[in-house]
Write a structure and sequence with these properties.
Length: 91
């Protein structure tokens, strides 16, 4: 069983408090603090995630929850990590 904790659209994952976005291939419909995409909607396929990413970046990559943005946030570095980081669940 795997848990996705990195947004498939923008690559965000809060290092201090990673949020589960997908669990075992099932979307949890969590909304990304960074790009505002909802797991299971904008990232239901890699094609839809790419479209959502392009729209977000073309729109200036605004933070959905500006208060969650780290002071040292770097868009380029985040986009490098855009592929899902999966963490195996115990058991």
């Amino acid at each position: 069983m795997f848990i996705d904790v990195t947004c498939r659209v923008c690559g965000w994952s809060d290092p201090g408090d990673p949020e589960e976005l997908w669990h075992g291939g099932t979307p949890l419909h969590a909304v990304c603090d960074c790009c505002g995409s909802e797991s299971g909607v904008q990232d239901v396929s890699w094609r839809t995630a790419l479209r959502a990413r392009k729209a977000w970046v073309d729109g200036g990559a605004p933070w959905f929850a500006p208060g969650a943005r780290p002071g040292d946030w770097d868009l380029s570095a985040q986009l490098e990590k855009v592929r899902s980081r999966r963490v195996p669940t115990p058991g």
